[in-house]
Amino acid sequence: MNYILDGLTQALSLLVGGDPETFSAVWTTLIVTVQAMIATLVLGTPAGFFLGYADFPGKRAARLVVETFLSFPTVVIGLVVYAFVSRRGPLGELGLLFTVPGMALGLTILGLPIVIALTAQAVESLDPRLRPTLLTLGARPGQVFLATLTEARFGLFLAATAAFGRIISEIGISMMLGGNIKWSTRTITTAIALETGKGEFATGIALGIVLMVIAFAVNLAATACRRRSAA
Q1: How far is the C-alpha of 205 from the C-alpha of 96, rounded, in Å?
Q2: Which residue has the higher pLDDT, 202 or 57?
Q3: What is the pTM of this model?
């Protein structure tokens, strides 16, 4: 038990002292998470709206594919993206392997099914009279889109929060596509795995504390936004 308390004490010392290596991993995590979340929401929200709003041939098959990807092994996602962005892959010339944008690409693919599925579910759960009412009032397609998303905003908050939790806590994709390079692509999760394996328990605890604080802060902000929207 003493080594846990000692590790916690040393972890707090690292955080208070602003340990450069620790905060380098934190900064990289924030950058890659923000990039992946922006791409995920920009691509996933319209796709989820279309899947839940429109009727088209193959809709059930598309829904099945999206829901299947919700449980897709993350290591397979990392492997597939690795094959595409490696030097011998079709996207090798872009130089994405072992870079922050390359990690963000893999994490975007991880988060997309979550946003698409939950957005579609939120749109489908709306009052069926909403669409004909908007069309009767002369709403244009863009206005219908925005009005529908506004009504489904609580579901969108849930989709964004769920995707954020999955993205920021992922380790396999980050390790495979980022390479866990110190001062460059080392994230909180990959650093925790590395430092704990080396016996540097204090560093692992410090990074774990930061990860929990970030997750708690984001969820707290999302909850506050939901309450403000409901008021």
Answers
A1: 30
A2: 57
A3: 0.89
Structural domain 23-198, CATH architecture: Orthogonal Bundle (1.10)
> From the CB of residue 58, how many other CB atoms can be counted at a distance below 10 Å?
9
pLDDT digits (tens, 9 = 90+) for 64-92: 999 889 888 899 999 999 999 998 889 98
Residue 227 tokens read as 């309450």
pLDDT reading at 109 higher than 60: yes
Q: Cα-flanking dihedrals φ and ψ of residue 80, to 5°?
A: -65, -45
**Residue type (1 letter), 32:** V
